[in-house]
């Protein structure tokens, strides 16, 4: 089985007025279903109140992420699934619940990690 990252950037989530509680409830329900199905690894969002820093090999830090990279924010779920088709199904469920399209990526398997 492979681990899949299902995610979306914060800007993609456009919640219609008055629907915030519904979106939260429905997205949590999908995560609860993933837990019940035994495919849940972890999920959540990055805390944007904590500043991002880059840490060099010598331990020095620089404020901010990589300047040329995309902002890493929004919501994330990691699920362990038997097939890409199963991952696409879970991504579609999260897209419906969160009211925005999801990006799907698979983690490269490294037996040493």
From TrEMBL:
It comes from the Bacteria. This is Transcription initiation protein. It comes from Cognatilysobacter lacus.
